[in-house]
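Reviewers of the previous submission asked for a worked example of the structure-prediction workflow described in the proposal, so we include one complete record here. The input consisted solely of the amino acid sequence. No template or homolog information was supplied to the procedure at any stage.
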Amino acid sequence: MNYQPASMLNFTDSIDWLSFNDTRTKLLPEHIRKAAHFSESIYSSQQRWQTYLCALGVLGFEEWLQERAPDLSVEIEEASIWQPEYANLIAAASNISIGSFKLCIITSNNFSDGYSIPFAVFDIPRFAAHFYVLMQVEEEEEQVAVLGFMTYKQFSSYQQTAGLHTKFTIDKDWTYQIPETHFNPDSNDLLLNLRCLNADAIQLPVKTQDLQSDTLLVLQEKLGTLKSQLQIKRPWELLTVEEGLILLSHQNLIKYTYEATLPSPVQPLINVGLWFNNQIDTLARELGWMLMPSLLVASELRSLREDFESIRNGLEQQSIHIPSTARGAYRDLEWEGGSFRLYAITWVLSETFENQEWMLLIALGPNSEGHMPKTLKLEVGDEIQLLFAQSLLDTSEGILYAQVIGNWNERFWVTVTADEKTVIELPPFGLVTGDVDC
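From that input alone, the workflow returned the following structure tokens.
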């Protein structure tokens, strides 16, 4: 049968159209449990949320199709969204099958004039699909709805047309911006296509010739140098679009990128909780950390008092006040031009069971015998993401500091870069659960 894909329609202008969309489908408790359980395998908080929404979209689409068209059998078990190494990079569900057709489920929980869609589902042959189905996910209401769909052929046509008038390119976050008007909102047309259209009517991209081994080797080596950063940054923040195309075309690189995000084995930490009892752990002592006397009492060590006064004054000018309950320690950091001092100061913000929080203040400054670098960069992150990153281009003009708030047992990693050459990574700081006399 020579059947052509159903024609494109315009979306309603009403931003509130979901309230009368007849494709609304109720999510079942097992859908929510399955999506939540699977999303735990994604360690980037933002990507975890997008994966959770996409998983709900897939399960909701399956439920909708069973209710609306039980004659159409859908296979979702091989969808890319259920494979953590793919979901870590692509928050869309490719390789869903209905008969001879390949579908890709894309989700949204916001109305807008267009949608950010991972370029990989169009440009990487293994993820390309005959139909791209856009699902609206209302997580709080436990509902999904079919927003619309487009075919690969329609995307190719849009790509060519847009390229004639604008610079149609992949965005820095490895997505395409597709206007909502290019999605057909009529779910009946989707069902008609799935029943009557021959899959050969929509030509999908084919795999191109493999890249030369030296090109892959260069990217593999770069990923190796970025391994620690992949735990706190997304790949598109570290790689170019061209490198992303290579990465997403090779399964071994995809797997390596995911494995780099996995939590590191339990590391020894600098336990700031001991400082409240005027104690210091073995690791900190071995690394040269020294406890500071009470921060509001003049130190018996004149040099320490003088060095820290400049830090305290600088913080006061920034309206950062250190409470009397605070405790701290310091350590001198070596760089090729000398040494400077890192101060770590902590205090408890709340000890209630519902809200146990502590503050970590990191400050960099001179010591009495060393020589400050001209520039400094300070980064602080937790197990998931980078929380603070700031540079001081002239250390004679101020101090560089960071403040972060953590829950009991939460850890923070600190990295200091001197003159853009010397990188110093510190073991994590943590306040171990237990009785803290503050």
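The chain has three domains: 17-201, 213-261, 270-430. We consider this example representative of the routine output the project will generate in years two and three.
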